[in-house]
Amino acid sequence: MPTPRTLPNPNPCAALPSYSPQLNPIERFWKKLRRRATHNRLFDTLADLKASIRASLCYFQTVRHKVKSLIEGRPKRKTSK
After folding, report:
1. Model-level pTM?
2. In terms of CB atoms within 10 Å, which of 46, 49, 58, 80 comes out highest?
3. Dist CA 28 CA 66 (whole Å)
4. Is the CB of residue 54 less than 8 Å from the CB of residue 37?
5. What is the dihedral sign for C-alpha 47, 62, 38, 70?
6. Tens digits of residue pLDDT in 23-43
7. How far from 47 is each of 6, 42, 43, 81, CA to CA, in Å?
């Protein structure tokens, strides 16, 4: 019986930091959605919050190219001057 060291690795994975939201594509989208739907707003009811999120999702359906580039693209690095 082969030992674990001799078994081939069918799914090679890159070593990532334990917490790296900037490398996770859905995190970049969630940041944009959250900013558009909830930033600096106070909702009286849960229904108002849901309506705001739905409206933002409808907006993102109209600009699919932006969503695609956001998910496929690499995160922008902040440069200090």
Report:
1. 0.60
2. 49
3. 12
4. no
5. positive
6. 777 888 888 999 999 999 999
7. 55, 12, 9, 44
